Amino acid sequence: MVLVGGLATAATAPRPDPVRDYLLNALGLLRANSIDQKSVDWPRAEAEAVREIAGVTEPAGTYSAIRNVIAELGNPHTYLRGPNAARPPAPSTIEVPSSRTFGDLAELTVPGFLANPAAAGRYVSAGVAALAAADANRPCGWIVDLRANDGGDMHPMLTVVAPLLGDGVVGSFAAPDGPTPWTLRSGRLTVGTASTTESNPLQLARPRPPVAVLTSSRTASSGEATLIAFRGLARAATFGQPTAGLATGNVPFPLSDGAMLVITMVHDVDRTGRVYGNTPIPPDHPLPATATTDEVIAAASAWLHTQPGC
């Protein structure tokens, strides 16, 4: 009788459903980690998502249902990347910082950086070299161009601009369990208690220079975090157009098929305590969208030459 009962139980046990499990795992990650988790009725959303994938046999068939729930969260910075898009680019193809000098000023262009540990050292090394090459001319003021910085990993970016920012807390993440400060010490960035491998020990010929930061609607995510590190700094001002409005921190969660669920978990905060989010950050000195690069540089240069020591 025990054997027969055991067979009967086994016969009625639900069959494993890896596709359904994949879906519910993704939704569970969103529910547990998103800063917008309270905006969704999770039992209803999960039930609707399960109904939506009826008959689906591959994980890719759940993407639409997952994205529908992401849309309910209402955060444009949270997203799902398929396996092909989730693969990092070759390190040699990632743009690196560059610099130029003109007159008594220097310009440092800081591009976005796709999170790729294998490329971080190359990016920082190029940035340190660019900063050093421009500093050899002893510029009295600096322009930091973030107009095309569409984000990625902020750690290499902040490491590159560390000598322009100086030591101390330059910003933080606001999370439910408390703030996580971004701290620079001797060119090394520490976020919370985790320090970066790379550092930028360069000592500027003219320490604590005035800095003009250029922004546009393409300045996004970690590009905005880099901008925020200069916000509240008395010797810095921003020029150009409002940013994209994605000033929040994301954490990537790999899924079993190679896709990546990128979840917004924290807000960016500047050194004055101002909290940012999904609203574009306006520049201190707005310029027309039709302004040419020469006109933007001219406006920034004129301001720099009004600052002490320049």
UniProtKB/TrEMBL annotation:
Q: Which InterPro entries match?
A: ClpP/crotonase-like_dom_sf, Tail-specific_protease
Q: Where is the Tail specific protease domain?
A: 74-288
Q: Which domain of life is it from?
A: Bacteria
For this protein, the record's PANTHER family field holds: CARBOXY-TERMINAL PROCESSING PROTEASE CTPA (PTHR32060:SF30), TAIL-SPECIFIC PROTEASE (PTHR32060)
| Record protein name field | S41 family peptidase
Species: Amycolatopsis rhabdoformis
Question: Which classification does the entry list for the species?
Answer: Bacteria, Bacillati, Actinomycetota, Actinomycetes, Pseudonocardiales
